[in-house]
Amino acid sequence: MASLALIPQSRFVFQKPNLSIVSSPNVSSSVGIIPKDSPCSKTRFLKLPGKVTRNVVVSAEKPWERYPGPGGETKGKGKGFVEEMRFVAMKLHTREQAAEGEMEAKAPEEQRVEKWEPTLDGYLKFLVDSKLVYDTLEEIIEEAAFPSYGEFRNSGLERSEKLAMDLEWFRQKGYAVGEPSAPGVTYAHYLKQLSDHDPQAFICHFYNVYFANSAGGRIISNKITREILDNKELEFYKYDADLSQLLQTMRDKLNKVAENWSRDDKNRCLEETQKSFKFYRNILRLILS
Ligand code: HEM
Fold first, then answer.
1. CA-based, 20 to 30 A from 94: which of 111, 159, 171, 212?
2. ipTM, interface predicted TM-score of the complex
3. Considering the entire predicted model, what is its pTM?
4. Which family does it belong to (predicted)?
5. From the centroid of its chain, how far is CA 143?
6. Per-residue pLDDT tens digits for 67-99
7. Would you give the end-to-end CA distance of the chain in angstroms?
8. Which domains does the chain have, with CATH numbers?
9. How far, in Å, from the CA of 53 to the mean position of ligand 1?
10. pLDDT of residue 63
């Protein structure tokens, strides 16, 4: 058994039944995983230097060094803080949602999207609530209560106008488009409040919501387009420029903004990921209502 070294001030970024994500200002990129049954998790010791053993995967190394891409390439190298946000987000997916997911699917919306039984009414509610969330995010960025928010203006990822076009299309087809419901209203309210006093935590939501739509959103879009929209492709999933380029520009901006953050700021941002998933899951659930 290799020796264990105590890393002062290490803290849990999040915990779930079998794993804890730990971070520490004393570790370079400082995100590690400790199975809960490991003695390390109880004592908050980390194993150094970062090595993968049968039960313990904790390290001083950077996440992308431990998680090479499918072809073994060091995916993410040089991506900075965004790679940490992605790392935490991917673990919070269920195994059914994404190959890198580690959570167990419990609720229907956490199951494999192919197995979903969406309804048109439910999907419309999802679009209405999504629009409120994107309206709110885009207003916050526009008003820029903190100068860093201004960096994210005119990214080409904005969804508010696209959603307005989709909802108008439904209206013209004779569908009743209702008012936002509790999941969207609650999330929008939370985002507004958070953005006024905690930019790091807010930016976690900003990252997750926009990147979720570009990844999982496309899987959902395929299912909905085929099964309930008679192959009508919605604007929500279309971008006016090359999406991978837009995402990369956004990653670069996020990394640049995060360069000025302390380790505590970064940890607070990472810790917020769970909330982002919880709020967004409640909105996704509308599709199946
Ligand atoms: C039905 C639900 C969902 C499905 C099927 C899904 C699926 C996926 C998949 C397959 C990826 C990997 C994309 C890739 O690397 O090529 C991904 C990435 C991601 N997802 Fe999800 N996801 C879902 C929900 C969510 C939620 C609720 C959030 C957070 C609010 C989220 C945030 C993200 C983020 C931040 C990424 C990283 C994107 C990137 O690196 O470009 N996802 N998702």
1. 159
2. 0.96
3. 0.81
4. Belongs to the heme oxygenase family.
5. 23
6. 344 344 444 455 699 999 999 999 999 999 999
7. 51
8. 4-67 (no CATH), 108-288 (1.20.910.10)
9. 28
10. 46
